[in-house]
Amino acid sequence: ETFKSPAPITNTSHSNTNVSEAPQNAIVPQTPVQTAETGPTPRIQNVVCTVNLGCHLDLFKINTHTRNSEYNPRRFCGVVMRLLSPRSTALVFSSGKIVVTGVKHEEHAVLASRKFARIIQKLGFPVKFEEFRIHNMVATCDLRFPIRIENLHQVHGQFSSYEPELFPALIYRMIRPRIVVLIFVNGKIVVTGAKSRVDIQEGLDNIIPILRSFRKQ
Question: I need a surface site. Which of 14, 95, 144, 213 has the fewest CB within 10 A?
Answer without folding.
Answer: 14
